[in-house]
Amino acid sequence: MAMPPERRVEVKHVELCKGVNGLDKVVLREVRGCSAEVYLYGGQVTSWKNEHGEELLFVSSKSNFKPPKPIRGGIPICFPQFSNLGPLEQHGFVRNRFWSIDHDPPPFATSTSNKAFVDLILKHSEEDFKIWPHRYEFRLRITLGPGGDLMLTSRIRNMNTDGKPFSFTFAYHTYFAVTDISEVRVEGLETLDYLDNLKNRERFTEQGDAITFESEVDRIYLSTPTKIAILDHERKRTFVLRKDGLPDAVVWNPWDKKAKAMPDFGDEEYKHMLCVEAACVEKPITLKPGEEWRGRQEISAVPSSYCSGQLDPRRALQCG
Questions:
Q1: Which of 152, 211, 239, 312 satisfies CB 3.0 to 4.6 Å to 230 for a cystine?
Q2: What processes in GO biological process is this protein linked to (predicted)?
Q3: Which residues are catalytic?
Q4: 295 bridge partner residues
Q5: Cβ distance 190 to 314 under 8 Å?
Q6: Is domain 14-319 in CATH 2.70.98.10, yes or no?
Q7: Closest CA to 252 of 242, 244, 263, 262
Q8: pTM assigned to the model
């Protein structure tokens, strides 16, 4: 008996569809089964799953997918201001703007051999100009690698016609999903100076051999290495964050009291998330008209068990 011809299933690498509340989103898929979702509202990654379908990012169950409120979780983009130190709303305004798909991007330094990526673009509007009087062009490429790595590459250009430079601070405000925050440690930031947002940005030096969590943490680590590891012991998983063009790293967990005070955050959800963010906060970036800045973050998840108890993030990288 003749066997039927083999059916080839075409993988749709990039798909534009509707998300929560009818908002447009782009779904990226790789052949092995990993995926990512990006909302055009905010240019925001809201999901990143491995080949087993496990969610690697945290999004609050109480998150608003209702403009103009920002989405709580995933990877919000903080620009042109991180935090609330300045005239703008907290973390700037691009996280609650509608981005467009960029159909004609200039060449990126990153490889395009991989099919699962999307280019987004955001330009100044008259509304933005009233609160931040500069003309800018923000290009964002989001790539899902063949091994499931997630890369975000930003290119920000000063488009002012009046000859004026502008300065900004920036962060990829990444919410990692963790099993139990009390069983998580962050490595790669030992012995570094940090600004403590819970103590009026007073400067301290990290004393521990790793960062662990027993209460609220809100710190900006300065002059950080290009690789940081987040170890989720209970899940036997290590997140590895690599960054370029972003000298600082923010570490944040609101803990119980602040969690209860946030309307778009569940009372107990602080136990299952941790923000570790590639950022540029201490020394703002200044661009003259026509100049462009680039900043990149790549995150991957590797089984910690491969590392045989070695918690050095450099070993974690070798184990992937």
A1: 239
A2: carbohydrate metabolic process
A3: 173, 277
A4: 154
A5: no
A6: yes
A7: 262
A8: 0.91
What tokens appear for 233 in the block? 């012991």
Here the tokens at position 44 are 């925001």
Q: Are 319 and 306 in contact (CB under 8 A)?
A: yes
The tokens describing 182, both together, are: 């009390």
Residue 155: phi and psi, rounded to 5, are -130, 115
pLDDT tens-digit series, residues 196-223:
999 999 999 999 999 999 999 999 999 9
Give the side-chain half-sphere CA count within 13 A for 206.
Answer: 24
